[in-house]
């Protein structure tokens, strides 16, 4: 059986609302798993190890890099982040679709990798002023961290044109519904049933 799932690659400037959209989409769409990245950043209040991220030391991250355990990795806003190769490949082989919440550098690496099927989605805020409101309103980051993320946002927004889909997160419900539509459209392209089950899995039965 050669059933292979699809990678949905989501990128956005920090604070655009990607995590909020993802949580709602994941609760409603079947056969979709979230890839839990490894990071050297410290957990924010409420974040759980193994659920939001695998929080690791810089030494541990470098050891994983040396062992080629990352499908992609990047330094983002002063910390390291990486996607586990064994975990993603294992789920793809089972025909499971996976969402990767990764930055523009990681997205470019995966989009070039012809051994995996992927679709790229950029989530943008309605404006940079609203992005700043959301980052400050979230109340999880220091002023210095917010300033750094806002400086990086302009560069990240310029990469939006390289993505296949653009979801503008103005009204949350609309953004969630657009994101769900993207998943349904991509599944139709790759010969999936609406619930995401690969057709060759069905005909193999
Ligand atoms: P990201 O994962 O992109 O960094 P979050 O999902 O953490 O962003 O969202 C940043 C903040 O903006 C959170 O406080 C969240 O509740 C809020 N938020 C998300 N989407 C919207 C929206 N459409 N309208 C208003 N606030 C939003
Ligand atoms: P945050 O610290 O706000 O959770 O994430 C900061 C940035 O790192 C976001 O742009 C997020 O998409 C990105 N990121 C999270 N996990 C990964 C990963 O595994 N690889 C890459 N390249 N970026 C990641």
Task: Describe the fold and architecture.
It is a single chain. The model has no long low-confidence stretch (mean pLDDT 91). With 205 residues, the protein is α/β, with parallel strands linked by helices. It starts with 6 loop residues before the first strand and ends with a helix. The protein contains eight helices and nine strands. The protein is globular, with a radius of gyration of 17 Å. It has a domain at 7-35 and 95-189: Rossmann fold (3-Layer(aba) Sandwich), CATH 3.40.50. Helices cover 43% and strands 20% of the residues. The protein has helices at 18-28, 58-66, 85-93, 104-112, 128-138, 143-158, 172-189, 199-204, and strands at residues 7-11, 32-34, 38-39, 54-55, 70-76, 79-84, 97-101, 118-124, 165-168. A hairpin with a 2-residue loop joins strand 5 (70-76) and strand 6 (79-84). Helix 1 crosses helix 7 and helix 5 (128-138) packs antiparallel against helix 6. It has a five-stranded parallel beta sheet, with helices on both faces. A four-stranded mixed beta sheet has the order 4-3-6-5. The structure holds adenosine-5'-diphosphate and guanosine-5'-monophosphate. Adenosine-5'-diphosphate is lined by residues 12, 14-20, 134, 137-138, 169, 172.
